[in-house]
Amino acid sequence: MAARGRLARWAAVALLVAVLVALPSVVAALPADDADVPAADLRAAVLDGADVGFSGYAVSAGGLALPVSDRLTAAADLFSDRTLMRVWWRGPDEHRVDVVAAAGETGVHRDPGGTWTWDFEAGTATRGLPASLALPAPPDLLPAALGRRLLSEATDDEVTRAGARRVAGRDALGLRVAPAEPASSVARVDVWVDPASGLPLQVEVYGEDAALPALDTRFLDLDLAVPPADVVAFTPPPDATVLTAPDTEGLIAEAGERAPDVSLPAELAGLPRRSFTGVPGAVGVYGRGVTLLAAVPVPQRLAGGLREALTASPEAVTDALGTRVAAGPLGLMLVERAGGPAYVLTGTVTLDALAEAARQLPGAAS
Protein backbone atom coordinates (compact mmCIF):
# COMPACT_ATOMS: atom_id res chain seq x y z
CA MET A 1 0.00 0.00 0.00
CA ALA A 2 2.85 2.39 0.81
CA ALA A 3 4.43 1.78 -2.60
CA ARG A 4 1.08 2.35 -4.32
CA GLY A 5 0.59 5.59 -2.41
CA ARG A 6 4.07 6.79 -3.37
CA LEU A 7 3.41 5.94 -7.02
CA ALA A 8 0.14 7.86 -6.98
CA ARG A 9 1.86 10.84 -5.37
CA TRP A 10 4.55 11.08 -8.04
CA ALA A 11 2.02 10.44 -10.84
CA ALA A 12 0.20 13.54 -9.62
CA VAL A 13 3.49 15.44 -9.56
CA ALA A 14 4.23 14.34 -13.13
CA LEU A 15 0.84 15.65 -14.24
CA LEU A 16 1.50 18.95 -12.47
CA VAL A 17 4.90 19.24 -14.16
CA ALA A 18 3.31 18.67 -17.59
CA VAL A 19 0.64 21.31 -16.99
CA LEU A 20 3.07 23.91 -15.66
CA VAL A 21 5.57 23.41 -18.48
CA ALA A 22 2.83 23.72 -21.13
CA LEU A 23 1.16 26.75 -19.54
CA PRO A 24 3.69 29.47 -20.56
CA SER A 25 3.14 28.88 -24.29
CA VAL A 26 -0.56 29.66 -23.78
CA VAL A 27 0.02 32.70 -21.61
CA ALA A 28 2.78 34.06 -23.87
CA ALA A 29 0.32 34.20 -26.76
CA LEU A 30 -1.58 36.97 -24.97
CA PRO A 31 -0.62 40.52 -25.96
CA ALA A 32 1.73 42.43 -23.64
CA ASP A 33 1.71 46.15 -22.95
CA ASP A 34 5.06 47.84 -23.50
CA ALA A 35 6.09 50.95 -21.57
CA ASP A 36 8.43 53.80 -22.37
CA VAL A 37 11.09 52.88 -19.82
CA PRO A 38 14.72 53.56 -20.85
CA ALA A 39 17.08 50.59 -20.77
CA ALA A 40 19.33 52.21 -18.14
CA ASP A 41 16.40 52.83 -15.80
CA LEU A 42 15.07 49.28 -16.20
CA ARG A 43 18.52 47.81 -15.57
CA ALA A 44 18.88 49.97 -12.44
CA ALA A 45 15.52 48.67 -11.18
CA VAL A 46 16.76 45.09 -11.61
CA LEU A 47 19.99 45.74 -9.71
CA ASP A 48 18.10 47.52 -6.92
CA GLY A 49 15.61 44.67 -6.52
CA ALA A 50 17.81 42.06 -4.83
CA ASP A 51 15.66 42.12 -1.68
CA VAL A 52 12.30 41.62 -3.42
CA GLY A 53 10.44 38.68 -1.87
CA PHE A 54 8.44 36.23 -3.99
CA SER A 55 7.27 32.66 -4.40
CA GLY A 56 6.15 30.55 -7.34
CA TYR A 57 7.22 28.03 -9.97
CA ALA A 58 10.07 28.41 -12.46
CA VAL A 59 11.43 26.19 -15.21
CA SER A 60 14.92 26.14 -16.67
CA ALA A 61 15.77 24.43 -19.96
CA GLY A 62 19.30 24.04 -21.29
CA GLY A 63 20.81 22.32 -24.29
CA LEU A 64 24.47 22.13 -23.30
CA ALA A 65 25.84 18.58 -23.55
CA LEU A 66 28.89 19.03 -21.34
CA PRO A 67 31.73 16.46 -21.26
CA VAL A 68 32.12 16.16 -17.49
CA SER A 69 33.00 13.50 -14.94
CA ASP A 70 30.48 11.65 -12.79
CA ARG A 71 31.33 13.95 -9.87
CA LEU A 72 29.98 16.95 -11.79
CA THR A 73 26.89 15.32 -13.28
CA ALA A 74 24.41 17.14 -11.01
CA ALA A 75 25.82 20.55 -11.92
CA ALA A 76 25.98 19.71 -15.63
CA ASP A 77 22.36 18.49 -15.63
CA LEU A 78 21.21 22.00 -14.72
CA PHE A 79 22.51 23.23 -18.08
CA SER A 80 21.43 20.27 -20.22
CA ASP A 81 18.03 19.23 -18.90
CA ARG A 82 14.64 20.69 -18.08
CA THR A 83 14.42 21.60 -14.39
CA LEU A 84 11.16 22.53 -12.65
CA MET A 85 11.64 24.54 -9.46
CA ARG A 86 9.27 25.63 -6.70
CA VAL A 87 10.70 28.67 -4.94
CA TRP A 88 10.11 30.67 -1.77
CA TRP A 89 12.41 33.71 -1.66
CA ARG A 90 12.72 35.99 1.37
CA GLY A 91 16.15 37.27 0.35
CA PRO A 92 19.58 36.22 -1.00
CA ASP A 93 20.46 34.58 2.33
CA GLU A 94 17.03 33.20 3.18
CA HIS A 95 15.22 31.15 0.56
CA ARG A 96 14.10 27.68 -0.47
CA VAL A 97 14.17 26.10 -3.92
CA ASP A 98 12.67 22.64 -4.49
CA VAL A 99 13.52 20.76 -7.67
CA VAL A 100 10.38 18.81 -8.59
CA ALA A 101 10.54 15.76 -10.88
CA ALA A 102 8.44 12.69 -11.52
CA ALA A 103 11.02 10.52 -9.77
CA GLY A 104 11.44 12.59 -6.62
CA GLU A 105 12.00 15.96 -4.99
CA THR A 106 15.09 17.75 -3.68
CA GLY A 107 14.97 20.98 -1.69
CA VAL A 108 17.73 23.55 -1.19
CA HIS A 109 17.14 25.66 1.95
CA ARG A 110 19.40 28.67 2.39
CA ASP A 111 19.89 30.45 5.71
CA PRO A 112 22.58 32.92 6.89
CA GLY A 113 24.69 30.01 8.17
CA GLY A 114 24.71 27.96 4.97
CA THR A 115 22.46 25.55 3.07
CA TRP A 116 20.51 22.38 3.74
CA THR A 117 19.92 20.09 0.76
CA TRP A 118 17.06 17.71 1.52
CA ASP A 119 16.65 14.62 -0.68
CA PHE A 120 13.10 13.52 0.13
CA GLU A 121 13.29 10.06 -1.44
CA ALA A 122 16.71 9.15 0.03
CA GLY A 123 15.96 10.73 3.41
CA THR A 124 19.31 12.55 3.47
CA ALA A 125 19.96 16.11 4.65
CA THR A 126 23.30 17.62 3.60
CA ARG A 127 24.68 20.71 5.30
CA GLY A 128 26.93 23.06 3.35
CA LEU A 129 28.71 26.19 4.56
CA PRO A 130 28.59 29.52 2.69
CA ALA A 131 31.25 29.68 -0.01
CA SER A 132 32.35 32.46 -2.32
CA LEU A 133 33.15 29.84 -4.95
CA ALA A 134 30.83 26.87 -5.44
CA LEU A 135 29.35 24.67 -8.14
CA PRO A 136 26.10 25.93 -9.71
CA ALA A 137 22.94 24.97 -7.81
CA PRO A 138 19.22 25.32 -8.66
CA PRO A 139 18.86 28.77 -6.99
CA ASP A 140 21.55 30.11 -9.37
CA LEU A 141 19.31 29.35 -12.37
CA LEU A 142 16.25 31.21 -11.15
CA PRO A 143 15.45 34.06 -13.57
CA ALA A 144 15.72 36.63 -10.78
CA ALA A 145 19.21 35.54 -9.70
CA LEU A 146 20.63 34.84 -13.17
CA GLY A 147 19.18 37.95 -14.78
CA ARG A 148 20.53 40.21 -12.05
CA ARG A 149 23.99 38.65 -12.25
CA LEU A 150 24.24 38.92 -16.05
CA LEU A 151 23.13 42.56 -15.97
CA SER A 152 25.42 43.53 -13.09
CA GLU A 153 28.57 43.96 -15.22
CA ALA A 154 27.02 45.05 -18.50
CA THR A 155 27.83 48.55 -19.70
CA ASP A 156 25.18 51.03 -20.78
CA ASP A 157 26.37 50.67 -24.38
CA GLU A 158 25.71 46.92 -24.30
CA VAL A 159 22.12 47.14 -23.00
CA THR A 160 19.12 48.10 -25.13
CA ARG A 161 15.36 47.66 -24.84
CA ALA A 162 13.75 44.60 -26.48
CA GLY A 163 9.99 45.19 -26.48
CA ALA A 164 7.58 43.38 -24.16
CA ARG A 165 6.04 39.95 -23.64
CA ARG A 166 3.81 38.09 -21.19
CA VAL A 167 5.65 36.00 -18.60
CA ALA A 168 3.92 34.27 -15.68
CA GLY A 169 0.77 36.23 -16.45
CA ARG A 170 2.55 39.60 -16.22
CA ASP A 171 3.66 42.22 -18.71
CA ALA A 172 7.45 41.95 -18.85
CA LEU A 173 9.72 44.56 -20.45
CA GLY A 174 12.74 43.32 -22.37
CA LEU A 175 16.41 44.17 -21.90
CA ARG A 176 18.92 42.88 -24.42
CA VAL A 177 22.62 42.53 -23.58
CA ALA A 178 24.94 42.27 -26.59
CA PRO A 179 28.51 41.58 -25.33
CA ALA A 180 31.11 43.95 -26.77
CA GLU A 181 34.09 41.58 -26.54
CA PRO A 182 35.05 40.05 -29.93
CA ALA A 183 35.99 36.81 -28.13
CA SER A 184 32.46 36.27 -26.81
CA SER A 185 30.47 33.27 -28.05
CA VAL A 186 27.25 34.73 -26.63
CA ALA A 187 25.35 36.69 -29.26
CA ARG A 188 22.85 38.16 -26.81
CA VAL A 189 21.09 37.74 -23.50
CA ASP A 190 17.43 38.74 -23.26
CA VAL A 191 16.15 39.55 -19.77
CA TRP A 192 12.40 40.10 -19.34
CA VAL A 193 11.61 42.26 -16.31
CA ASP A 194 8.55 43.05 -14.20
CA PRO A 195 8.75 46.87 -14.25
CA ALA A 196 6.93 47.35 -10.94
CA SER A 197 9.33 45.27 -8.85
CA GLY A 198 12.46 45.10 -11.02
CA LEU A 199 12.31 41.30 -10.83
CA PRO A 200 13.64 39.41 -13.88
CA LEU A 201 10.91 37.00 -14.98
CA GLN A 202 12.72 35.26 -17.84
CA VAL A 203 16.30 34.99 -19.11
CA GLU A 204 17.34 33.66 -22.53
CA VAL A 205 20.98 33.14 -23.52
CA TYR A 206 21.68 32.83 -27.28
CA GLY A 207 24.86 31.64 -28.94
CA GLU A 208 26.09 32.96 -32.29
CA ASP A 209 23.74 32.18 -35.22
CA ALA A 210 21.40 30.22 -32.91
CA ALA A 211 17.64 30.32 -33.47
CA LEU A 212 16.90 28.79 -30.06
CA PRO A 213 18.38 29.81 -26.70
CA ALA A 214 21.14 27.69 -25.20
CA LEU A 215 19.56 28.43 -21.83
CA ASP A 216 16.01 29.58 -21.09
CA THR A 217 14.85 30.07 -17.50
CA ARG A 218 11.48 31.63 -16.65
CA PHE A 219 8.77 31.87 -14.05
CA LEU A 220 5.59 29.94 -14.73
CA ASP A 221 3.66 31.28 -11.76
CA LEU A 222 4.63 34.13 -9.44
CA ASP A 223 3.38 35.75 -6.22
CA LEU A 224 5.17 39.00 -5.35
CA ALA A 225 4.88 38.73 -1.58
CA VAL A 226 7.43 37.77 1.06
CA PRO A 227 6.81 34.10 1.97
CA PRO A 228 6.58 33.04 5.65
CA ALA A 229 9.85 32.26 7.40
CA ASP A 230 8.67 28.81 8.51
CA VAL A 231 8.22 27.72 4.88
CA VAL A 232 11.86 28.50 4.12
CA ALA A 233 13.43 27.18 7.34
CA PHE A 234 14.56 23.56 7.56
CA THR A 235 15.30 21.17 10.40
CA PRO A 236 16.32 17.60 9.52
CA PRO A 237 13.67 15.04 10.47
CA PRO A 238 14.64 12.74 13.37
CA ASP A 239 15.08 9.74 11.04
CA ALA A 240 17.09 11.63 8.39
CA THR A 241 20.68 10.76 7.49
CA VAL A 242 22.67 13.97 8.05
CA LEU A 243 25.74 14.55 5.87
CA THR A 244 28.28 17.33 5.45
CA ALA A 245 28.88 18.77 1.99
CA PRO A 246 32.46 18.83 0.66
CA ASP A 247 34.35 22.07 1.27
CA THR A 248 34.40 23.39 -2.31
CA GLU A 249 36.77 26.24 -1.58
CA GLY A 250 39.13 23.89 0.26
CA LEU A 251 39.13 21.38 -2.58
CA ILE A 252 39.80 24.12 -5.13
CA ALA A 253 42.57 25.60 -3.00
CA GLU A 254 44.13 22.15 -2.59
CA ALA A 255 43.95 21.58 -6.33
CA GLY A 256 45.55 24.96 -6.86
CA GLU A 257 48.42 24.01 -4.57
CA ARG A 258 48.98 20.81 -6.57
CA ALA A 259 48.80 22.60 -9.92
CA PRO A 260 52.02 23.10 -11.88
CA ASP A 261 53.91 26.25 -10.96
CA VAL A 262 53.33 28.54 -13.92
CA SER A 263 52.76 32.25 -14.29
CA LEU A 264 49.60 32.94 -16.28
CA PRO A 265 49.52 36.12 -18.39
CA ALA A 266 47.62 39.28 -17.51
CA GLU A 267 45.49 38.92 -20.64
CA LEU A 268 44.17 36.03 -22.76
CA ALA A 269 42.30 36.35 -26.07
CA GLY A 270 41.92 40.09 -25.47
CA LEU A 271 40.29 39.55 -22.05
CA PRO A 272 41.94 41.05 -18.94
CA ARG A 273 42.66 38.85 -15.95
CA ARG A 274 40.66 39.49 -12.79
CA SER A 275 40.63 38.17 -9.24
CA PHE A 276 37.85 36.57 -7.22
CA THR A 277 37.70 35.61 -3.56
CA GLY A 278 38.22 31.88 -3.22
CA VAL A 279 39.99 31.44 -6.56
CA PRO A 280 43.60 30.25 -6.04
CA GLY A 281 46.43 32.04 -7.80
CA ALA A 282 47.09 29.05 -10.07
CA VAL A 283 43.69 29.57 -11.71
CA GLY A 284 43.31 32.44 -14.16
CA VAL A 285 39.89 34.04 -14.67
CA TYR A 286 39.51 36.51 -17.53
CA GLY A 287 36.77 38.76 -18.90
CA ARG A 288 33.58 40.18 -17.37
CA GLY A 289 29.84 39.82 -17.35
CA VAL A 290 28.59 37.35 -19.94
CA THR A 291 32.06 36.77 -21.41
CA LEU A 292 34.34 34.80 -19.09
CA LEU A 293 37.33 32.54 -19.68
CA ALA A 294 39.09 30.34 -17.10
CA ALA A 295 42.60 28.90 -17.53
CA VAL A 296 43.85 26.12 -15.24
CA PRO A 297 47.23 24.34 -15.45
CA VAL A 298 46.99 20.61 -14.70
CA PRO A 299 49.55 17.79 -14.56
CA GLN A 300 49.82 15.77 -17.76
CA ARG A 301 48.74 12.60 -15.94
CA LEU A 302 45.30 14.13 -15.34
CA ALA A 303 44.79 15.24 -18.94
CA GLY A 304 44.03 11.82 -20.44
CA GLY A 305 40.47 11.54 -19.15
CA LEU A 306 39.51 14.99 -20.41
CA ARG A 307 41.16 14.35 -23.78
CA GLU A 308 39.11 11.18 -24.16
CA ALA A 309 35.88 13.01 -23.29
CA LEU A 310 36.59 15.86 -25.72
CA THR A 311 37.66 13.73 -28.67
CA ALA A 312 34.49 11.63 -28.29
CA SER A 313 32.53 14.61 -29.64
CA PRO A 314 32.15 14.62 -33.46
CA GLU A 315 32.50 18.41 -33.33
CA ALA A 316 35.90 18.35 -31.63
CA VAL A 317 38.79 20.18 -33.32
CA THR A 318 42.27 18.72 -32.73
CA ASP A 319 45.47 20.33 -33.96
CA ALA A 320 48.93 21.25 -32.72
CA LEU A 321 47.44 23.50 -30.04
CA GLY A 322 45.27 20.83 -28.45
CA THR A 323 41.65 19.68 -28.57
CA ARG A 324 38.71 22.05 -28.34
CA VAL A 325 34.96 21.68 -28.54
CA ALA A 326 31.89 23.90 -28.16
CA ALA A 327 28.65 23.05 -26.34
CA GLY A 328 26.42 25.89 -27.45
CA PRO A 329 28.13 29.12 -26.34
CA LEU A 330 30.37 27.26 -23.88
CA GLY A 331 33.84 26.38 -25.14
CA LEU A 332 36.23 23.84 -23.62
CA MET A 333 39.82 23.13 -24.62
CA LEU A 334 42.68 20.94 -23.48
CA VAL A 335 46.12 22.35 -24.32
CA GLU A 336 49.04 19.91 -24.11
CA ARG A 337 52.75 20.18 -24.75
CA ALA A 338 55.62 17.74 -24.37
CA GLY A 339 57.58 18.00 -21.14
CA GLY A 340 55.34 20.60 -19.52
CA PRO A 341 51.97 21.07 -17.87
CA ALA A 342 48.68 20.82 -19.66
CA TYR A 343 46.08 23.56 -19.49
CA VAL A 344 42.31 23.47 -19.40
CA LEU A 345 40.57 26.47 -20.97
CA THR A 346 36.82 26.95 -20.65
CA GLY A 347 34.33 29.76 -20.90
CA THR A 348 31.78 31.60 -22.99
CA VAL A 349 34.23 32.31 -25.78
CA THR A 350 34.55 31.15 -29.39
CA LEU A 351 36.76 28.27 -30.54
CA ASP A 352 38.96 30.83 -32.31
CA ALA A 353 39.34 32.71 -29.02
CA LEU A 354 40.31 29.46 -27.27
CA ALA A 355 42.98 28.87 -29.93
CA GLU A 356 44.27 32.42 -29.49
CA ALA A 357 44.41 31.95 -25.71
CA ALA A 358 46.26 28.65 -26.14
CA ARG A 359 48.98 30.42 -28.14
CA GLN A 360 49.44 32.93 -25.31
CA LEU A 361 49.91 30.38 -22.52
CA PRO A 362 53.41 29.90 -21.08
CA GLY A 363 55.30 27.33 -23.14
CA ALA A 364 52.35 26.49 -25.39
CA ALA A 365 52.84 25.61 -29.07
CA SER A 366 52.76 28.52 -31.49
TrEMBL record:
Keywords, comma-separated and alphabetical: Lipoprotein
Stored InterPro entries: Sporulation_related
Designated name of the protein: Outer membrane lipoprotein-sorting protein
Organism: Geodermatophilus pulveris
